[in-house]
Amino acid sequence: MIKLNIYAMKAHGQAIARGDYKENSSPMMPICLSSVKLRQLHQTQMDVRTSGDPPSRIEGYTMREELAGLQIVRLCEFLQHIECKDIETLIRKIVDSNLK
Questions:
Q1: What SS3 class is residue 55?
Q2: What pLDDT was estimated at residue 30?
Q3: Most exposed among 37, 71, 98, 100, judged by the fewest C-beta atoms under 10 Å?
């Protein structure tokens, strides 16, 4: 299992370095960026019906897979931005509670 907390910190740092938002930005900034990726994923899903699943920039994956992965990364950035203490445990608890 990957260390999601470590990757979330790295992704958050990269977003700040890219200038997507600042350390003291409103939590709405990462949510807005996540919303953009979700709209791109939705559009790609709609386009698959007529033109097939385009390849990703990441070898071995489709564009839908890449955009879904980006959505996960953006949401992890958000959790890191709002100072979630343990993202992995949060996700584990959510999954486990939904299985019961």
A1: strand
A2: 85
A3: 100
Q: In terms of Cα–Cα distance, which of 77, 94, 71 is closest to 5?
A: 77
- Return all residues near 26 (Cβ < 8 A) that are at least 6 apart: none
What SS3 class is residue 62? strand
Question: Which tens digits make up the pLDDT trace of 38-52?
Answer: 998 899 888 888 888
pLDDT per residue as tens digits for the range 26-40: 888 888 888 988 998
Q: How many other CB atoms are found less than 10 A from the CB of residue 66? A: 19
| C-alpha–C-alpha distance, residues 59 and 87, integer Å | 27
Task: For residue 32, give both structure tokens.
Answer: 């807005």
Tokens of 94: 């959510």
